[in-house]
Amino acid sequence: MKPRVMVTRRLPRRAMAVLDQHFEVRCNPHDRVLTREELLEGVRGQQGLLPLLTDPIDDAVMGAAGKQLRIIANYAVGFDNIDVAAATARGIAVGNTPGVLTDTTADLTMALILTVSRRIVEGDAYARAGKYQGWAPELLLGRDVHHQTLGLMGFGRIGQAVARRAVGFDMRILYHARHRVSSEVEARTGARYVDQETLLREADIISLHVPLTARTRHLIGADELSMMKPTAFLINTARGEVVDEAALAEALEAERIAGAGLDVFEREPRIHPALTGMKQVVLLPHVGSASIATRTRMGEMAAENLMAVLLKDQQPPHCVNPEIYR
Ligand code: DGY
After folding, report:
1. Distance 162 CA to ligand 1 centre (A)
2. Which protein residue's CA is at the shortest distance from atom 4 of ligand 1?
3. How far apart are CA 36 and CA 56, in angstroms?
4. Tens of pLDDT, residues 191-205
5. What are the respective helix, strand and coil percentages of the chain, to the nearest 5?
């Protein structure tokens, strides 16, 4: 008999095919996030759970699944939706999908940088509205990206991938992170380590690449925004809660910073209402990893994590709590 696995939302076709081949899959029949009640009901009796970052997996969900639950294979690199300590205490493995979405997310970060700086969304709306009457010297003037100073907050895989792209734009690259990277990585990415305040004060574009933890919640608040240049842009493709969204809306309204490119929000899927009316802000619905290839591969990696535990009795290849195997 195949092991029982619950998938909380339909994944791209090829990933579903892999899962169906190896597991008795119970999949969310709706094209929406499961309610808490549906999740609690759905996990009952499952040996594996494949949730998304929209599903809070706490101790109660693990308890509702029952003692045979052995692995939670998150469909994301981030795992802030899972109470990892509770899973560890119960001896449940937690898996994620690192690496595969690095370049895809870095590409989208560059897209947001270019879009806010060069007013691409405004230009598109202008042209579609039939307002274009011919080339004009002062039409939709934006700011250059090339030769600007890029400040990366967080310098893991995605931050470094953004830095590599920024080299091609001849940008000056600063980074701040909890741990300074090796001089080889600094040389390869052309990035210079600075303290947080220097980064905030000197960067023309600040891009966030930290995981969400107790330490990084509201990493960017009113104080940090007040240190930024009035001409600077804030880009967030990490997690919404890293930014105090109300403080950001206020800073934008008061023109204390020039604009923002946001792929993530503090209370997803809700967006601070003030932001939706601002031309200097570009908003995306959390699509950093949303390429066909990457979302498919993420599903395959989650399946590989499930297979390791449920079919081979092994540690998942991408395990965030390996201590349960010691
Ligand atoms: C992640 O993987 O953590 C992203 O936010 C979703 O792709």
Report:
1. 16
2. 76
3. 9
4. 999 999 999 999 999
5. 40, 15, 45
Residue nearest to atom 3 of ligand 1 (CA): 78
Tens of pLDDT, residues 59-78: 999 999 999 999 999 999 99
227 and 276 inside one domain: yes
Q: How far apart are CA 75 and CA 117, in angstroms?
A: 32
Ligand 1 atom with minimal separation from the 289 CA:
7
What pLDDT sits at residue 83? Answer: 98
Mapped onto helix, strand or coil, the DSSP state of residue 159 is: helix
pLDDT value at residue 81: 98
Q: Which two structure tokens, joined as six digits, stand for 160?
A: 């470094």
CATH number of the domain to which 223 belongs: 3.40.50.720
Residues 32 and 108 in one domain: no
Q: What is the mean pLDDT of residues 154-165?
A: 98
CB 104 within 8 A of CB 89: no
Q: What is the atom index within ligand 1 of the atom nearest the CA of 264?
A: 5
Q: 101: CA distance to ligand 1 center in Å?
A: 8
Residue 278 and residue 144 share a domain: yes
Can you give the residue range of the structural domain that contains 228?
A: 102-283
Which residues contact ligand 1 via a Cβ below 6 A? 53, 76-78, 101, 288-289
Global confidence as pTM: 0.96
Q: Collect all residues with Cβ–Cβ distance below 8 Å to 4 and sequence separation of at least 6.
A: 23, 24, 26, 45, 46, 47, 48
Please give the distance, rounded to the nearest whole angstrom, from the Cα atom of residue 98 to the centre of ligand 1. Answer: 9
pLDDT in tens, 100-142: 999 999 999 999 999 999 999 999 999 999 999 999 999 999 9
CA of 224 to the centre of ligand 1 (A): 25
